[in-house]
Structures are given as C-alpha cells and as structure tokens.
Amino acid sequence: MVSMNAAIGRLRAGLLVGLLAASCARADIVRDIVSLAPSRPHSYEQYISALRELSNSDRMHIETIGRSVEGRQLVLAMAQSPAHAGLPTEQRPPCILIIARQHGTESAGTEAVLALLRYFATTSDPASLEILNQMTLATVPMANPDGVARSRR
Known about the structure:
Helix content is about 45%, strand content about 15%. The chain is built from six helices and four strands; from the N terminus they run αααβββααβα. The protein has helices at about 5-25, 25-35, 45-55, 110-120, 125-135, 145-150, and strands at about 60-65, 75-80, 95-100, 135-140. β1 and β2 (about 75-80) form a beta hairpin.
C-alpha cells in the first residue's frame, strides 16, 4: 500500500510531468492528434471496435473495469511505455487520468480521448515516445455507455 506522502509526491510529480509535457509539446503533435479525430462521433459499438483495434499496440493496456446498469462495458484504456507494463504501481511513472463522456449526448470527450490514444498507440515521434516514458495516460473514454446507446444525457 502506498503511503499518503508517497501518493502526494507522485501526484506532484505527475502534475510536473504533465506541465513539462505540455510546455514541450510541439504544434505538430497537437495537429497530428486532432487529425485523428473522426468527422462523426462513434456509436457505442464503434467505440468498442476502436478499442479492440488499439489493443494491438504494445503501448496500450485495455481492460473492462465494470459494467453499466444495462450491461455495457466500462473500459479503462491506458497508453504507456512498453517498458512500464507489468511493473508494480510504486515503480511506474506518474499517471494522468481522464474520464470522458459522463453525459451520453456530449461526444467530444470520447472522440478527443480516442484520438489521443490512437496517436500514442501509433506514433514514432521521439518527443511523444518520451512523454510515455515519463507518464502513463489512463482514460475512461466513455463513462456513460447507456446514455450514448440511448442518445440521452
């Protein structure tokens, strides 16, 4: 179990890494990520298919962490350096958590997260790969799959 001081230290380190990554990010990285966003939002089924495709990358870890009220998967999708896979929590780099699409009718968050994951799963850019060496990006790209399936908030 991680002590409170260790957890606070990791949080501070994570914030620092995030700030450093943001300050080092080049405009072409942002442009590349934005270019991966689709012109139309993913349905729930398309989202699950996109995650299956991303799971082929050795930089991705995707797992079902629960089920919605109507039985749909709640998914944790992580982009990380392959060197960090399987390490104990206390040996991993800081983690940034993004939770998207709490409201079923607001698709922008899911699409942004999927574009970000797709970028880190496929990039060969050294600066981007260094970001993954310094941090793990953990996401719940669709927190309300039932709302998405029913087109309801």
